[in-house]
Predict the 3D structure of the following.
Amino acid sequence: MRPILFSVPFLTGMETGYVGQVLESDHWHGDGAFTERATQRLRELTDASHVLTTTSCTHALELAALLLDVGVGDEVICPTFTFTSTATAIAIRGATPVFVDSDPLTMNLNPDAVAAAITPRTKAVFAVHYGGIPVAVDQLIPLCERNGLAFVEDNAHGFGATYRGRPLGSFGDLAALSFHDTKNVAMGEGGALLFNNATFADRAEIIREKGTNRSAFLRGAVDKYTWVDQGSSYLPAELLAAVLCAQLEGFETIQALRHRVWSRYDLELAAWARSFGVTQMFVPPEVEHPAHLYYLMMPTSDDQQGLIRHLRSLGITATFHYQPLDQSPAGSRVGRTPFECSVAHDQAGRLVRLPLHANLSEEDVSRVVDGVRSYVPVACSLPA
Ligand SMILES: Cc1ncc(COP(=O)(O)O)c(C=O)c1O
């Protein structure tokens, strides 16, 4: 039986040619012509006036924390249900990640829990749009404004999504994208930092270029370049920018192929889900989701494991997702959790993600749908 993998990067057909052009040039390092082309395309797709490609979303988040001067003694509120990077970007500055529970419908930050977690030490909120479904920006942005907090979007999942017609990543003071090869647009490892506030611009390019004003020097704005600020090596090589460029130029194709899979899952699993008490991924009104992931909320944690095992026996890889950070060894050591995160703990133990990528054929999708439908949740399989 041919295995159906969980995630496989999609080739638009332009990648090899573009990488070849870089290899044949004398410019393999970052910020060459492909970086410029990819950056321009990202500006168009995200509505951000400033876009800096980075070596990962993790690094874009670190760059955001540096720009906001997050440091020792500060607290930054973030979801407990997220990837480690949302919190490591805070902890690596010596600040304290403060873990907050999820909204049960979206798995995103619960805005009431965020409000309750604010202290005089709170400096920012790092929010995630889980699965590209927007966090409660209508509540969180005014809350941040009232309390003088920066609002950062960890938009690793939401590239291509909109809320009320506005791209995710355009709501916060700063936003981070991921182009890891599990994402819709991939360059192996990579990301971008987005912002609209020009006051960040000079400092962001310095931090990204090892703390130097090399970018200003290359533009002819200064005679020599030197160490002027904090910094690290967050600039991706041109070889990877070439891959990113190819992917962005094929973005509409990638999205159409992924939406086809997402919509079939949603439609074809609806009756099965209803009859077995399984909850399908929720898309609120006025949201265009990015078809980044598709999940099912199983009735029990035994069913999470049961469905994953059942699909594995059929050659299909399905997975759970984040383990809540407040319960992780490092999170409990360096973070603070003011209130119990019972929603996240419960849902993390029941969520199953189905394979979703642009390479899945119609036949693959049918196999996944049939595989899921042939699973009977534990409570329903017990004799009455
Ligand atoms: C919410 C979230 N933030 C950040 C990251 C890290 O992205 P990257 O691998 O590009 O650093 C991930 C990875 O999947 C993620 O899910």
Observations:
- The longest helix spans residues 251-268.
